[in-house]
């Protein structure tokens, strides 16, 4: 999400390289060097079809097909959809409609379990108030759409992780019924909640954020051992900081990742093959915002590195780690374009992936062959989901 109320690896030894500026013709969508063509996944989508950066939108299923989750207008009501590509992103077709009914549904996230089932969560606005819904697809729906957040109070912007046992885990930010505005910069009463499925039932929602109840936009990842890593941003009485907690037998007390004097918003988290988490977020100072990354090693967070420069404010970072350990991060900027940066044995220069219209809410899936990126493109009042494949160098 765009920050509310005006918020608007490997040893990290690297030199910040300038943004690549390929000579694209104005108004023509062309790919960055080493990338395939831009392909339309779906048209008639909402302007926030691939929002938000804390959610996984793109996965590869058990058959090797790519699957994208997004929001699309159906009879004037936003609904959650899945699209599939059987040729590595060259062509796309609608797979199935996830949500249903005359109630807006948006903000989907995807997960894949060891049995090859697609697990989907999203926000549905029952009576105008957000609630979290869940469904499982295995060639057909295992059950009807199911609400997993409490019947009262707001719940939105969920993030999903599936552990090695195939069980789903979900975090969201919400408002408990009867909560009163807190003495924070924006009077927020958002808190971070968790629920998990044990194969029989969902656990009661548990509050995992402590401190001032002004906690927003959680992201969640599971490591190979099944430990969960959650991040969000939270007001500390002075600025907004990225907060981190992990769950093994139970949830740890949250910690501030890197205390700074500048606001930090919209974090995303991924884990490498060794189970070490990496984080990206927006660092805001004045009118500038820069995408930063850090890795946790030996129980400590390394010094952050800048992935973007300060030439234009950058937002909505998405992060993915390939099995080989290669890292890919993508983000959008106020110039309306999507940018990406990759790390294998060294950081490559940041590249621009788009050229026309307004492009927002990118999501990335890294593999040993490269990376796939999806985002929302808007021009002349029409929006569509687009896909681009970046080949490994």
Structural description of this entry:
- By secondary structure, this protein is mainly beta.
- It has one domain: Neuraminidase (6 Propeller).
- Helices cover 0% and strands 50% of the residues.
- It has no helices and 29 strands.
- β10 and β11 form a beta hairpin.
- It is globular.
Please summarize what this structure is.
The chain is mainly beta.
Which features characterize this protein?
single chain; 29 strands; Neuraminidase; disordered N terminus; 393 residues; mainly beta; 4-stranded antiparallel sheet; 5-stranded antiparallel sheet
According to CATH, what is the topology? Neuraminidase
Number of helical segments with 4 or more residues: 0
* Major pleated sheet: 5 strands, antiparallel
Number of domains: 1
State which percent range the strand residues make up: over 45%
Q: How many strands?
A: 29
Task: Give the name of the CATH architecture.
Answer: 6 Propeller
Radius of gyration: 19 Å
Class derived from helix and strand content: mainly beta
Give the helix level as a range of percent.
Answer: under 10%
Instruction: Give, in order, the helices and strands.
Output: EEEEEEEEEEEEEEEEEEEEEEEEEEEEE
Poorly predicted regions are 1-31
Distance separating the two termini: 32 Å
- What is the overall silhouette? globular
Overall residue-averaged pLDDT value: 89
What is the CATH C level class, in words? Mainly Beta
């Amino acid at each position: 999400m765009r920050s509310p109320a005006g918020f608007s690896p490997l040893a990290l030894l690297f030199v910040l390289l300038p943004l690549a500026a390929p000579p694209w013709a104005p108004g023509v969508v062309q790919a960055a060097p080493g990338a395939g063509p831009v392909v339309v996944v779906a048209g008639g989508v909402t302007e926030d079809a691939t929002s938000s950066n804390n959610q996984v939108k793109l996965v590869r299923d058990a058959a090797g097909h790519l699957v994208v989750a997004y929001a699309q207008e159906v009879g004037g009501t936003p609904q959650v959809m899945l699209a599939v590509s059987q040729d590595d992103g060259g062509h796309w077709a609608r797979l199935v409609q996830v949500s249903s009914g005359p109630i807006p549904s948006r903000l989907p996230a995807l997960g894949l379990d060891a049995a090859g089932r697609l697990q989907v969560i999203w926000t549905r606005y029952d009576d105008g108030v957000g609630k979290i819904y869940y469904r499982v697809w295995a060639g057909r729906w295992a059950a009807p759409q199911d609400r997993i957040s409490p019947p009262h109070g707001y719940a939105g912007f969920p993030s999903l992780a599936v552990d090695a046992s195939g069980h789903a885990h979900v975090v969201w930010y919400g408002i408990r019924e009867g909560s009163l505005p807190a003495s924070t910069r924006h009077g927020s009463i958002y808190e971070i909640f968790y629920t998990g499925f044990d194969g029989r039932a969902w656990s009661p929602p548990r509050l995992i954020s402590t401190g001032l109840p002004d906690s927003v936009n959680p992201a969640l990842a599971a490591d190979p051992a099944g430990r969960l890593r959650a991040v969000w941003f939270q007001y500390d009485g002075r600025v907004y900081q990225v907060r981190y907690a992990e769950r093994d037998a139970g949830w740890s007390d949250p910690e501030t990742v890197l205390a700074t004097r500048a606001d930090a918003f919209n974090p995303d988290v991924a884990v490498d093959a060794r189970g070490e988490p990496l984080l990206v977020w927006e660092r805001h100072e004045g009118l500038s915002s820069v995408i930063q990354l850090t890795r946790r090693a030996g129980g400590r967070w390394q010094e952050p590195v800048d992935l973007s420069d300060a030439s234009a404010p950058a937002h909505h970072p998405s992060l993915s780690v390939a099995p080989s350990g290669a890292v890919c991060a993508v983000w959008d900027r106020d110039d309306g374009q999507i940018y990406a940066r990759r790390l294998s044995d060294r950081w490559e220069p940041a590249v621009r992936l788009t050229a026309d219209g307004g492009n927002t809410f990118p999501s990335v899936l890294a593999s040993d062959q490269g990376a796939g990126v999806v985002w929302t493109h808007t021009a002349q009042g029409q929006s569509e989901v687009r896909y681009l494949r970046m080949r490994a160098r």
